[in-house]
Amino acid sequence: MTYAVRYQSQGGKTKKVAQILAQTLGVEAYDLDTPITEQVDYLFIGGGLYIKRYNQPIKDYLEGTDLSLIGEIVPFATCNEFSNVIKQIRNFCKNNNIKCANEDLCIKWVLEGMFDIGFKGAEFTPELENRIKEFAGKFLA
Length: 141
Ligand SMILES: Cc1cc2nc3c(=O)[nH]c(=O)nc-3n(C[C@H](O)[C@H](O)[C@H](O)COP(=O)(O)O)c2cc1C
Fold this sequence. Notes:
Strand content: 15-25%
Bound molecules: flavin mononucleotide
Mean pLDDT: 90
């Protein structure tokens, strides 16, 4: 199986999640400046949410990607409370007739508060790291 991991990350948390996913899958995680140029069985793609109802860079990235190179998309997201990013990616897949994994990874940070929104309180506990690794592990052949 072949894998690619792409992330959008303003504050670094989704990047870290992407890196743990990628490490488990034996690949590198790249930001959205890196296009998909080779056939992959699974594209893991995710990002944070920043006030808007969807993640614009992910929208642009998916729209600019040659979907014939991708077997299946695996969505992941981080957010404070409620992320539409998973739903956004699922809708993209549905509208573009591309397979989307049944499972996704949505990580919610608890109690970051309104004042330090997005920048504090996200702890990568061993439990969380295991959860991310276990999620990626489900896609290993
Ligand atoms: C300016 C800003 C706006 C945000 N808006 C939302 C939001 O509308 N809903 C939500 O659940 N989280 C929101 N968050 C929280 C981030 O989505 C969350 O902390 C995410 O993990 C950030 O990922 P990153 O560190 O990879 O950028 C916001 C964060 C920032 C900085």
